[in-house]
Amino acid sequence: MKENPMRRSVSLLVAGLCLTASAFSQDGKMTSAQIEVVEAERAFARHCVEHGIAESWMEFFADDGIVFRPGPVNAKEFYRKQVPTPRPLRATLNWEPRYGDVSQAGDLGYSMGPWNYVTNVPPKEPDAHGYFFSIWKRQTDGKWRVAMDFGTGEIPAATEDHVFGKPFEPARQYTINVPRESNPAVELQVLTEMDRGFASSPQSAGVLDTYLAVVSDDAKTFKPGAPPADKEALRSFIPAGKEVSLVLMPIGGGVAKSNDLAYTYGSYDLQEGGRTKEKGYYVHMWKRDESAKWKIVVTNFSGKAN
User: Fold this and answer.
1) Is 276 within 8 Å of 200 (Cβ atoms)?
2) Fewer CB near the last or first residue (10 Å), C or N of the chain?
3) CATH architecture of residue range(s) 184-305
4) Which listed CATH number (3.90.950.20, 3.10.450.50, 1.10.260.40, 3.30.470.20) goes with 5-170?
5) Structural contact between residues 254 and 261, judged by C-beta atoms closer than 8 angstroms
6) By three-state DSSP, how is residue 106 classified?
7) What region does 228 belong to: left with phi over 0, alpha with psi -120 to 50, or beta?
């Protein structure tokens, strides 16, 4: 889930995996669908600890689920080509969901949290750590499966988050009055056009201010090699100035049946003075605010500087 699964690692505190999602809903803030997504994420992690990476991705991803290698590819097609995981497992990948949300229709959700990767046999490599961001969809049979997996990739050192057993925090909930005329296909077109629109930001405002205006105040932001941060961290990613352009080229996405939660993804080209500063791939998680306007609640950029 985990942006680079071969380096995404496992804490040996497997006891933390025995905690059920219901244990994290004592404050009554989690809906039944939110609990299901947390349970599914934890079951995915347990399966990976027991059976290995390729086998678990084949089991828990949707048939059209996407991973980034580095661009978006079909996860099952990618892992079907991998050799079976040798026994006993030479390395263990584990993770824990800490934050997420689910649509009002209970058909689309996301979760994020820390991952750990540890080698089990000599010569042992240093542990690797990072953060994952997974998008989940309910399938026609009622089961939740991963639609997309991204994240930070490996970060330089573990943080206190990488000690497992901490509680899950659901995203802030509020009443959303979705316009009656909304439908998922139309809303996906609206959101992809919003992505494209950043490239033509008014020079008077600049792309940084234009982008920040669409990002929710409580958004989570992912960048390569760094823990998830808040909205203000985007200021270190998108330079201020009239000569800066953020060219987003959407590839796809999805919208909940309730038209309150959605995602888009594609490639990006961050330019300054007409020259590429960084390019790679992005994922946006969108949610309507109290006034029914779409806001970005998760940004995930992963690329390389030129």
Assistant:
1) no
2) C
3) Roll (3.10)
4) 3.10.450.50
5) no
6) coil
7) beta
Q: Which residues contact 293 (CB under 8 A, 6 or more apart)?
A: none
Tell the burial category of 269 from Cβ atoms under 10 Å away from its Cβ (0-12, 13-18, 19+): middle
Residues of the chain with CATH 3.10.450.50: 5-170, 184-305
Query: For the chain, how many residues are written?
Result: 306
Is residue 134 within 8 Å of 146, Cβ to Cβ? yes
Strand partners, 303: 280
Q: Which amino acid is at 134?
A: S
Q: Do residues 114 and 32 touch, judged by C-beta distance below 8 A?
A: no
8 Å CB contact between 73 and 66: yes
- Give me the tens of pLDDT residue by residue for the chain, a chain 306 residues long: 554 444 443 333 333 333 333 334 333 489 999 999 999 999 999 999 999 999 999 999 999 999 999 999 999 999 999 988 888 999 999 999 999 999 999 999 999 999 999 999 888 888 999 999 999 999 999 999 999 999 999 999 999 999 999 999 999 999 898 988 889 999 999 999 999 999 988 766 789 999 999 999 999 999 988 999 999 999 999 998 888 999 999 999 999 999 999 999 999 999 998 899 999 999 999 999 999 999 999 999 999 987
3-state helix, strand, coil split of the chain in percent (to 5) is 25, 40, 35
